[in-house]
């Protein structure tokens, strides 16, 4: 018999060869009907795959991320199977599950596939589902795999196989389609009741711009048609909230091919918004004893060699800057932390000086591939609300808790629900990280203990740590239920070691400080994008670029409109005038599109009584008020919202 341990700690015995499906059946018929994926000893496992040894098991339903992953992974194979039946001579790349749905990369050969083909592809997928094909896993030798896919002319698959280790290669077959795959999958295609092909894009094979560009087809699937309908409704709402669309309508930012892809241009209203975010965080940081610093946008290559960033980000950096000095190379900085380490080194440090907290709104540069760029969420130039704290080991937990307070305050202030994730290194691939086991154990333990002390329930995820240390990531949920990773805190024993950072302890001996990296917003670009989509562009009053717009009903009242703006300015209320020669209805519609919180309509009645007719964004007419009464109310509301 084998011993199988459940998440609650219970252990049950089973005959060798038992499957997760049968284990679920031993608990209840209901559970057996709904599980679609499993993990055995932390390895993803098909529910019909035999288990022959002792171990721990987890069972997943559709509602679990792991369940959706298996469901969408099988759906990606279903898409490939449909494409195989519809188009002759296509090459298959990879087809993974992603956060929402799946995609498959293909080389279409002589075929042309466009969005006009989506309905045909969906129809074929539905036809294949009706066959209720079993999904069968097989172990295969490397030679046999190369021969099988080679005979089919699948050179992309053969390239992948050539890099795999013999004895660890598997295929999955459904109907007439066989794919190279590690799994896991659901047992058959039958549960896939609703499918939608969403979009088509180009993607370089293996992400290499020098390789052939493939066609990437995105899709999503659900076990019920109602779920698909709800998702498509959500998708339509997401399109309305797209920060790229809102940024253009609200005149916040732009991109120019002449400047370069992925390099945002912040327009006056967007720059003002950014400055208010920076002012807010600066004010908060001052209370926590942070010191503002400024570092250059470039650094000598050896700085990043020392830090390890050159080895890690060298391929994702822009080409080196060569100076007239022979052999001298500089890079656009990919990170601020090496520069802050050098600031620490500018003077001898004592334990009495620590903790030191250096903060900077530092712009960094990464060469993202053009196909990966997306508005403000994936750019080549971005500004981190960065800070690096240098402390003694005894101060680490308290400093970590202080950073947690700042991030919690910031995310809560903007109305985000959030959850935390402790990102640990992968113990099976330690070569991906710098530093000893000892410092990694200490750093990971410090984060876990800080979360426990704060009462923060944090999910632990293996393999997601930064190369120099573990981290605590804050995942926010927006108004549409989408998850975004924003704030982060990282504990680092390694960079102080690499840079030889020291302080003199109370024992008069030299010691290494511990370093904490942190960014509550993550980056200003990404934070603004997520905030725009979360609020549908209706930003908090204190943050809105323009808090009010004055709309004269005709040219006769333009001078009065200017008077209104002057009065509002005395109360620090940001207001503009729309004095276009347009009907008042069009002015209202146009300015509501700009998401300006208050529309102030002025005409004969208002000018005679020193009033404004107030219209609030999303709420309609609010009646007339004296200019000073309105202005004082706005100023009071803003003051209340900006008490940090």
How would you summarize this macromolecular structure in one to three sentences?
The protein has 644 residues and is of the alpha+beta class.
Would you mind describing this structure in some detail?
The protein is of the alpha+beta class. It is 35% helix and 26% strand. The protein is built from 20 helices and 33 strands. The chain has an eight-stranded mixed β-sheet with strand order 16-20-21-28-25-24-22-23, with helices on both faces. Strands 2-1-5-3-4 form a five-stranded mixed β-sheet, sandwiched between helices. The longest helix is centred in the N-terminal third of the chain and has 22 residues, at 65-86. It is globular.
**Uncertain regions spanning at least 5 consecutive residues:** none
Radius of gyration, rounded?
29 Å
User: Structural class, judged by helices and strands?
Assistant: alpha+beta
Assign an overall shape.
globular
């Amino acid at each position: 018999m084998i011993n199988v341990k459940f998440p609650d700690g219970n252990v049950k015995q089973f005959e060798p060869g038992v499957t997760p499906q049968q284990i679920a059946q031993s608990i209840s018929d209901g559970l057996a009907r709904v599980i679609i994926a499993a993990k055995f000893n932390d390895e993803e496992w098909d529910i019909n795959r035999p288990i022959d040894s002792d171990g721990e098991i987890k069972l997943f339903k559709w509602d679990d991320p792991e369940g959706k992953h298996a469901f969408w992974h099988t759906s990606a194979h279903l898409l490939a199977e449909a494409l195989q039946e519809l188009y002759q001579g296509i090459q298959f790349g990879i087809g993974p599950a992603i956060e929402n749905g799946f995609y498959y990369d293909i080389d279409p050969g002589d075929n042309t596939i466009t969005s006009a083909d989506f309905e045909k592809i969906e129809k074929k997928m539905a036809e294949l589902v009706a066959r209720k094909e079993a999904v069968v896993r097989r172990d295969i030798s490397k030679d046999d795999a190369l021969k099988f896919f080679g005979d089919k002319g699948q050179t992309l698959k053969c390239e992948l196989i050539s890099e795999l280790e013999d004895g660890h290669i598997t295929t999955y077959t459904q109907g007439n389609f066989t794919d190279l795959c590690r799994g896991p999958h659901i047992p058959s295609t039958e549960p896939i009741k609703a499918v939608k092909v969403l979009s088509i894009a180009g993607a370089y094979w293996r992400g290499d711009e020098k390789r052939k560009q493939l066609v990437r087809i995105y899709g999503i699937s659900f076990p019920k048609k109602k779920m698909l309908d709800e998702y498509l409704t959500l998708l339509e709402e997401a399109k309305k909230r797209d920060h790229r669309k809102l940024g253009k309508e609200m005149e916040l930012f732009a991109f120019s091919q002449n400047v370069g892809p992925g390099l945002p241009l912040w327009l006056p209203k967007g720059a003002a918004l950014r400055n208010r975010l920076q002012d807010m965080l600066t004010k908060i940081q001052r209370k926590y004893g942070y010191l503002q610093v400024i570092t250059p946008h470039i650094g000598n290559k050896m700085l990043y060699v020392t830090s390890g960033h050159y080895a890690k980000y060298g391929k994702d950096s822009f080409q080196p800057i060569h100076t007239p000095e022979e052999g001298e190379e500089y890079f656009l900085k990919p990170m601020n932390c090496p520069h802050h380490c050098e600031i620490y080194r500018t003077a001898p440090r004592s334990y009495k000086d620590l903790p030191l907290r250096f903060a900077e709104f530092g712009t960094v540069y990464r060469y993202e591939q053009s196909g990966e760029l997306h508005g403000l969420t994936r750019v080549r130039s971005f500004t981190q609300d960065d800070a690096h704290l240098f402390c003694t080991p005894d101060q680490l937990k308290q400093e970590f808790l202080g950073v947690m307070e700042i991030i919690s305050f910031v995310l809560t202030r903007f109305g985000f629900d959030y959850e935390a994730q402790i990102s640990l290194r992968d113990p099976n691939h330690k070569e991906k990280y710098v530093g000893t086991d000892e410092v990694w154990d200490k750093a990971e333990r410090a984060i876990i203990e800080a979360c426990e002390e704060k009462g923060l329930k944090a999910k632990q995820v293996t393999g997601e740590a930064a190369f120099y240390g573990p981290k605590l990531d804050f995942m926010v949920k927006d108004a549409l239920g989408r998850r975004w990773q924003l704030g982060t805190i990282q504990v680092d024993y390694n960079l102080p070691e690499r840079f030889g950072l020291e302080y003199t302890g109370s024992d008069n001996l030299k010691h290494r400080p511990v370093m904490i990296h942190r960014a509550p917003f993550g980056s200003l670009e990404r934070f603004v994008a997520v905030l725009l989509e979360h609020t549908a562009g209706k930003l908090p009053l204190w943050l809105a670029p323009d808090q009010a717009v004055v709309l004269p009903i005709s040219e006769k009242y333009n001078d009065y409109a200017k008077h209104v703006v002057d009065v509002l300015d005395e109360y620090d209320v940001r207001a503009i005038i729309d004095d276009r020669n347009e009907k008042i209805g069009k002015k209202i519609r146009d300015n509501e599109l700009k998401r300006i919180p208050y529309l102030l309509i002025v005409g004969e009645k208002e000018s005679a009584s020193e009033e404004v007719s107030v219209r609030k964004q999303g709420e309609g007419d609010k009646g007339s008020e004296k200019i000073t009464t309105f202005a004082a109310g706005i100023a009071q509301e803003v003051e209340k919202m900006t008490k940090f």
